[in-house]
Design goal:
Elements (H helix, E strand, L loop, with lengths): L2 E3 L5 H7 L4 E3 H4 L7 E6 L5 H12 L6 E6 L11 H7 E2 L1 H4 L4 E6 L15 H14 E7 L1 H11 L4 E15 L13 E11 L2 H4 L5 E7 L3 E7 L4 E4 L9 H11 L25 H17 L24
Parallel strand pairs: 1-2, 1-4, 3-4, 3-6, 4-5, 6-7, 7-12
Antiparallel strand pairs: 8-9, 8-10, 10-11, 11-12
Helix pairs in contact: 1-3
């Protein structure tokens, strides 16, 4: 089934060349079914790149998905044309009266700042609190996962001695959970971050389960006991050349950066990277959409109830 996206979104041409089934708004209106409604809170600076990566994965599913794009009103992105934001994105004030089957909160290049010092932190707290009553299942990615674990459970992040950078092998801890149905015993995920969350802190939260981790990269996937909040610390959505672009950028700027692990043949940046994570990424998003969104969300979204009884650090406390 197709993914429904706005007419003339730049990602359309890229996705169609990759045989990703898309459907514009005009055609979708003629279909007599209810698509899954997903809102994407895009916190990444290069929003067009990120939205394309995520739409590629959301579109590789038998379910019809309708996506709204949201960005923070309290921070004006500097790397995305204003015209693109005006045409395709909305702020929280414009979507807060809607209800959604699912939500994705992306990572952001602010991980080395304390959460409270992030310019849009109060707005993000308000959005996460709103999602408890208006979204059935939320997928948090990288810094978005760290932010949500801190907001809901007070779980801190820790600075790493060196950037976690590369493509790392992971294992599934709980093979009976639907999120990793069909996964190999070992699968690969890209990581690109300066901070981490730790097992000892997560284990103190009785409502959380660690579904997957890596000996090198640490915690990868965490879920709450109601299966409505998923926290993913890696970047399964990354394109083949995303890590290369980050590496080349940092080298050009003279920043300390290691060659991304398990990425270039022979660790030679002159070689083309080897893609090891694409099949696992597609399966991850397909499983989320099917088992954690479609199979549980009410047909009538007005019947959504609170996802849990947490208030979050920006609300009444936990």
């Amino acid at each position: 089934m197709p993914i429904k996206i706005p007419n003339n979104l730049p990602a359309v041409n890229i996705l169609e060349k990759e045989n990703i089934f898309t459907m514009d708004e005009t055609r979708a209106y003629s279909q007599d079914i209810r698509p899954l409604r997903i809102v994407l809170l895009n916190l990444m600076p290069t929003k067009i790149v990120t939205e394309t990566q995520l739409l590629r994965l959301l579109g590789n599913s038998p379910l019809q998905v309708e996506v709204d794009f949201m960005y923070t009103a309290t921070y004006e992105p500097k790397n995305t044309p204003h015209e693109h934001l005006v045409k395709f994105y909305e702020t929280f004030s414009e979507v807060k009266n809607r209800k959604y089957d699912g939500m994705i909160i992306t990572g952001a290049p602010v991980e080395q700042l304390p959460f409270e010092e992030v310019e849009y932190w109060p707005e993000l707290c308000e959005i996460m609190d709103w999602s408890r009553r208006n979204v059935y299942s939320t997928l948090h990615i990288c810094w978005g996962a760290q932010a949500a674990l801190y907001y809901y459970y007070g779980i801190p992040k820790y600075n790493l001695p060196a950037k976690m950078f590369g493509v790392f092998p992971h294992k599934v801890n709980m093979k009976d959970k639907m999120l990793f149905r069909g996964f190999d015993d070992i699968f690969y995920v890209p990581h690109s971050r300066h901070t981490e969350v730790r097992r000892k802190d997560i284990e103190k939260a009785s409502r959380l389960s660690i579904l997957s981790e890596s000996e090198e990269a640490g915690i990868y996937a965490v879920v709450d006991k109601k299966y409505r909040h998923l926290f993913i610390t890696g970047h399964s959505e990354y394109d083949p050349l995303t890590l290369k672009a980050e590496y080349d950028r940092d080298v050009a700027l003279g920043l300390p950066i290691n060659i991304p692990a398990n990425y270039y043949p022979g660790d030679n940046p002159q070689q083309m990277p080897v893609v090891r994570w694409r099949s696992a990424a597609n399966l991850l998003f397909s499983n989320w959409l099917n088992y954690y969104v479609y199979q549980g969300t009410p047909f009538d979204l007005d019947k959504l109830n609170d996802l849990d009884d947490l208030s979050g650090l920006c609300g009444e406390g936990i």
